Amino acid sequence: MADRTGLLHDVPAPRPGPDDETPLAWWHLRSWRVDRRVLGRVRDGLHTLAPRPETVAAALTDAPARDQPAPVTAPAAPAATAAAAATEAATPELTEPAVAAIRSTFAIVAEAGDAVPGYFYGQLFARQPQLRNLFPPAMNAQRDRLVKALVQIVESLSTPDEMATYLAQLGRDHRKYGVDAAMYEAVGAALLATLRRFAGPAFTPAAEQAWTDAYAVLSALMIQAADEVSVSTPPFWPAEVVSVEERFRGMAVLTIALDQGLRFEAGQHVTVQHPRWPRVWRPYSIAGRPREDGLVQLHVKAIPGGWVSNALVHHCEPGSQLTLGPPLGTMTLAPAAGRDLVCVAGGTGLAPIKAIVEQAVRDSSAQPRRIHLYCGARQRAELYDLDDLWQLADAWPGLQVIPVTSDDRAFDGMQGNVGRVAARYLPHRECEAYLAGPPAMVRESLRVLIQAGLPRARIHYDDALLAGPEPQLPSRR
After folding, report:
1. How many angstroms separate the CA atoms of 135 and 155, rounded?
2. Per residue in 336-367, pLDDT tens?
3. How far is CA 89 from CA 40, 83, 173, 225, in A?
4. Main-chain dihedrals φ then ψ at residue 307, nearest 5 degrees
5. pTM for the structure as a whole
6. What was the pLDDT predicted at 37?
7. What are 460's strand-pairing partners?
């Protein structure tokens, strides 16, 4: 899965040159640390925007166009609070024609595929050649992160709450790279150059101004979020591996202790860096709700050729040092007015689903509900966490655990595609659903649950975890 928090990377501030007079140098004219009015203008302006065209998402993904997940409870972080407070009355910043220009030009640019991020980074490195050494050795994952970030931003222009939450997380996450405000100007200049190159005649002066204005206000959200949270939260967390438990060949559960407490919500994920591969970050969901002892668990399956996953599974032992980024993701337990839950997990997608289930069980003393957990794997041996799930079910009679295998004819339980099984036995249409697992499985589960009559607004998943598998890279001895 590609890390979607990759619009920026660990790049120092560019040195001004003779050609640096761009309309994106907006913070030279204003005090961005204290002027939050721009955040209010973007929020109020976006409230008036028309719905986005579905063709934008289709142009950038292999999957069919679809709606974005309904907003769910966001982490209670200082940056999010500041962003919300900053959205009081102000004049609109982005108009409907501006957003239409952004989407239409972006749809054109998207048709160029992989050439777009390649050109963008070429522009960035041409301006600052020394920056190339600060990026991962292989840029394919970084290109994926850039495209995912741009897709999310463009798609969320008409959903300001979702956009503000995403951008605040993006800004906080960029702190682990050492990004400062000046870096946003270099990225903005490279972005405009890329749009100009691939949009052609469609990149009119009006379209350029729309992108310039949009980038300014979106950058303000990220910069402000990073600045606010910096007073109370580290940019990353040094961590130590406490235990590594192999559950089946090539899959391990890592228990990790952090030097400082990590505040997160059940269902969120963190990016992880192993010392074997500096500057290479991979996202993994935290497998459980916040614990009193501060420990976190990660479920990791080694991907053939994957640098970080293999390092975590095969090159970690008690005492190994890791680095964790800030918590990300919006697939947290939404207020559901006591609705029953249908949770669908495939493979190590069980990690965030287990966290959601644990939180729901904890909350059920005050808000009882039934929880139907469909846990899928190819083979019986890959249903690696059933013992813990049975114990959880014993503690809460309202939890029903249904194991499902897709390629094990000898298995005496449910067989088939886990999402289809969940849709076939959907208890009723008033449930809230949570999905996690391989991208194809999540998309198929989404489709069949909607067909079964579950409203789209009550189906939750983490869009950041729907990218392709970890890039396969050359082995390192």
Report:
1. 27
2. 667 999 999 999 999 999 999 999 998 887 77
3. 7, 13, 28, 20
4. -65, -60
5. 0.74
6. 44
7. 434
